[in-house]
Amino acid sequence: MAVERAVVAVDVARAAGVSQKTVSRVINGDPHVRPEVRERVRAAAAQLGYRPNRAARQLVSGRSRTIGVLSVGSTDFGPASLMVGIEHAIRSAGYAMSVVNTLEGDPESITESLQGLVDQGVDGVAVNEPVGVFQLDPGQIGDLPILSLSGRYGISGNEIMVDADQSGGGRAATEHLLGLGHRTVHHVAGPAGWRSAGLRLDGWRDALERAGAPAPEPLHGDWSAPSGYALGQRLAADPDVSAVFVANDHMAIGVLRAFADAGRDVPGDVSVVGFDDIPEAAYLTRALTTIRQDLAQLASFGVRLLVDAIENPRRQDRREHVPVELVVRETTAAPRGRR
């Protein structure tokens, strides 16, 4: 019985009416191939079921066509949503992905995970690690392109930082509440050590200082609704609390329930602002006022810059902030005395 042979590049070239060299250029992402030729080659490859040999491609191009992803492995909305966006963006760019989940907050584990990706020969690394500190000297991994989605690490001579404007979001939430006439704004912060939590807290504190408003001691939760509920009970017991900025929407949901259980109406007695704009935020009994960050856009933009750094090698130190948006709904209002 005859054995059907595998489809090879010369078959694709013949079907597309181009040279084998052109097929190789398309496979390796050469940007100088005319778009119509590229599409013809891709269509022929798809029709024939051609699968390029990754090892051969790496040998020819000097690249693995693989991007490493260092992720905290959290199921929390922000990191998990970023991870989905990163995967979609990497695969859309024609790269494979190698993922390593880190142990949260363990510098040794985080450093070893990064070194493991570097040793695999990845073309670049996207870091979705909002807690960790790397035990590496600046530039220790050379000019390997690094995309940081959670703050600058200074571990490569070719580092791109892309982040939502976390501090700007904290400032906007606080300014919104102060603008309604609240004397001050209490803050339920994220866990200490998380970069995003620290930046949102900085924005809250900056807005209070600019307004000359007193700054209550922040309360730290763990991003979960139960922690928001526990801290919300403490806030609900204080009759002077009239406005609260919560560092994420899940904790804000817990805070809202705590106020409801204490018989304090939102926004009649207390105004609440969250952060993230999770899908459920608009469908609560009182639709949540919150700060929206577009994590899919953030991931797509960051990966696009990373791929450009891989395919057009150059030393750079680039920082980009993606704007956030205040979404005003039903959980904020002027305090009773100001209506």
Automatic annotation (TrEMBL):
InterPro entries: HTH_LacI, LacI/GalR-like_sensor, Lambda_DNA-bd_dom_sf, Peripla_BP_I. It holds the Pfam family LacI. It comes from the Bacteria. Residues 11-61 form the HTH lacI-type domain. Keywords: DNA-binding, Transcription, Transcription regulation. The keyword Isomerase does not apply. Coiled coil: none annotated. One of its GO terms (molecular function) is transcription cis-regulatory region binding. The keyword Transcription regulation applies. Transmembrane segments: none annotated. This is Transcriptional regulator, LacI family.
